[in-house]
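Progress note, sequence design subtask.
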């Protein structure tokens, strides 16, 4: 559902004397404040899975067009069985991560697809990443790049990463603390990275603390 509202510059009367330059008509998805708005005018302009599909298709088209017209060789694994196996493995990992993340979110009373947030997920894949489902999404164009021997799809992966990292995740990080205990969320954010960690940094810190006890 969408609502129409007027946005004006501070101190300017939006009625008869206001010029069209000082007033804009904005379509804003209606929200009750319990979840992020997705779509035109919302905090998340494009649904992430849809954005993933779009950039993957663009990469496939670009790779096919350049290779077909200008015969630019695309590097990567050349044996088809190897490419198929590697791509299938990445897709399987992505699906497993997404499945486990969904289960953990539902277990704390929250959900996926920008549904209301009722709890903080900190176990399972959320123990090593605050955004495991987005990590899973990034594996899709990478799998397509390997399967199709198309390095243009790595460019699609970069575009997807920038969209998630600069648009979607910052909106979530501002929104979630308004729905759950802020202190608990900040403590979780301080120990678990936005993307992923292999625990190396934590091990180094633990070794430093062992050598230099307070």
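Output:
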């Amino acid at each position: 559902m969408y609502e129409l509202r007027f946005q004006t510059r501070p101190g300017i009367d939006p009625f008869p004397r206001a010029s069209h330059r000082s007033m804009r008509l904005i379509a804003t998805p209606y929200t009750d404040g319990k979840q992020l708005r997705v779509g035109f005018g919302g905090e998340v302009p494009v649904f992430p899975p849809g954005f993933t599909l779009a950039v993957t298709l663009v990469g496939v088209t670009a790779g096919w067009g350049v290779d077909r017209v200008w015969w630019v060789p695309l590097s990567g694994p050349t044996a088809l069985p190897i490419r198929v196996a590697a791509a299938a493995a990445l897709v399987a990992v992505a699906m497993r991560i997404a499945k486990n993340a969904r289960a953990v979110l539902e277990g704390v009373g929250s959900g996926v697809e920008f549904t209301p947030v009722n709890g903080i997920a900190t176990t399972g894949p959320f123990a090593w990443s605050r955004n495991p489902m987005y990590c899973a999404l990034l594996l899709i164009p990478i799998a397509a790049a390997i399967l199709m021997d198309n390095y243009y799809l790595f460019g699609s992966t970069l575009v997807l990463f920038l969209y998630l990292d600069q648009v979607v995740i910052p909106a979530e990080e501002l929104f979630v603390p308004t729905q759950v205990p802020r202190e608990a969320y900040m403590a979780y954010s301080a120990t678990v990275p936005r993307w992923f960690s292999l625990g190396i940094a934590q091990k180094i810190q633990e070794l430093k603390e062992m050598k230099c006890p307070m």
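The beta strands are 2-8, 23-29. Work on this subtask will continue into the next period as scheduled.
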